[in-house]
Amino acid sequence: MKRWLIGFLSVIASVTMVMGSVYAADAGSEADPLVSKSYVDDKIEQVLAKIGQSSGGTASGTGAAFTPVSVAVGKTIIGGEGTEIILRAGKAGVVVSGSEGISDVTTGQTLYNGHSATLNHLNIISRADGRGFKVTEAAWFLVKGSYTVN
Predict the structure, then answer these.
(1) How far, CA to CA in Å, does 104 sit from each of 57, 60, 113, 130, 141?
(2) Any domain includes 115
(3) SS3 23
(4) How many distinct structural domains can be found in the chain?
(5) pLDDT in tens, 3-24
(6) pTM of the full predicted structure?
(7) Is the residue at 127 inside a domain?
(8) Residue 41 pLDDT more than 60?
(9) What share of the chain is helix, strand, coil (3-state, %, to 5)?
(10) Which long-range contacts (CB under 8 A, 24 or more apart) does 26-30 make?
(11) What is the pLDDT of residue 131?
């Protein structure tokens, strides 16, 4: 029994070594090259440089970053088409000129006249038709896209 077990384990070890050498032979080959960290870092930098060269602006020519905007009480911030607005501090009510509203994409709801903006919710202005927020308590907004303060 002991001889049989030793023989069996020897066969398993031999098969494992042969299979390991077969798979290891592919590592570093032309089909699966080994590369250095500096090579990978260089390629990542090249990709990031290409991404930075692409145009990320909107139709209004604004950048892809949010801009902090302070709006005084009684003033209204009106967003252009596709503008994203987040109320960060203060209070503001929704201003909509027609029957359609402003999309609160945080909750998936549509905001109409009479609704209040919720702090830290992302709102999207779908059309440049006078939609925005009238400030009732001094407010700070983060805005990505075109806007005017009246």
Answers:
(1) 23, 22, 13, 17, 14
(2) yes
(3) helix
(4) 2
(5) 777 877 787 887 777 776 656 5
(6) 0.57
(7) yes
(8) yes
(9) 30, 30, 40
(10) none
(11) 92
